[in-house]
Amino acid sequence: MAGVNRKISAASARAHTRRAKENTSFKLPSGIFTKILLVLSVGILAWAYQAIQPPLPKTCGSPDGLPVTASRIKLKDGRHLAYKEHGVPRDKAKYKIVFVHGFDCCRHDAVVATTLSLEIVETLGVYIVSFDRPGYGESDPNPRRTVKSMALDIEELADQLGLGSKFYVIGFSMGGQVIWSCLKYIPHRLAGATLVAPVVNYWWSGFPTNLSKEAYHQQLPQDQWTLRVSHYASWLTYWWNTQKWFPSSSVIAHSTDILSSQDKELLPKIVSTRNHRALVRQQGEYESLHRDLNIGFGTWEFSPMDLDNPFPNNEGSVHLWHGDEDRLVPVTLQRYIVQQLPWIHYHELPGAGHMFPHADGMSNNIVKALLVGEKETPS
């Protein structure tokens, strides 16, 4: 039987080929792109969450922490404060002072104590105790730290060491800022107070907007951003100060760009005394440096400019010392504060930067002004 000839048109052939290709082509499951996008989003969010989470602190004295080498007291809440004593024996002292260290420092950085002349120490009978603020050195971190809690820690330290019903306080830089808290929350315990180049919070109520804004913009751009993050988005402080994409705090980086001429002259002297530098951040930077930023530049419960005179009968005095060439803390803000608080004895030092307490004879002047009323400044 003969075969049947079939003629296939060109159009039919093309249609047949197209259907064959369609039947053999790979098809993605419905909604796959949405699922991929979702997975990528979750991954990015997980990475971001990890990036902003600070590591756990290496608490001194804990099983996996660093050894304790300092004298310490145990506070009511279970935390420990490490301290160091200077000057005459505590039970022989006429004047007892609690010194509060600055940012990125520890109990060994008690400049007023370490540079005070032996003559003044013995003649006046001066005892000074310095301590590691929470998270620094060998003092336990305080995750619940507030502006108020620091003053209460100082009060408890004084009580456990038996400093009496009244004692003096001196704070330098970020430690000077803590003295405002003492004047607010424990004024009844103070015999006198000195703020040395105290750090200023640009968001304190009471500053004229144009004045605080002008002072704020005197800071380096990366420092403006560091403070902005600490104030408005404290949960990002760890990430901001550890990321490598943008420059962060010049203070944490120990940049000399923020130092005055006098500061740079004093720098070799300061560096030569800081053989304990590794001790400062040994428990981690978050609970020391970063929490300092969050508290110091966060929202405060009060403004120093609203404080009342703690010594209305002149039974004590409050002093504020500042250099007019301080490039870390603009002098214009200190001038405004003391204008609002005329009961403060203000000492402005021409040509001085932020590190002026390290200058020869400066600690003598600061201590004598507080204890016996001498207001000498170095020539």
From TrEMBL:
InterPro entries, sorted: AB_hydrolase_1, AB_hydrolase_fold
UniProt KW Aminoacyl-tRNA synthetase keyword: no
Any Pfam family the entry gives: Abhydrolase_6
AB hydrolase-1 domain location: 97-359
UniProt keyword annotations, A-Z: Membrane, Transmembrane, Transmembrane helix
Domain of life: Eukaryota
Transmembrane annotation, as ranges: 28-49
Name recorded for this polypeptide: Alpha/beta-Hydrolases superfamily protein
Species name: Theobroma cacao
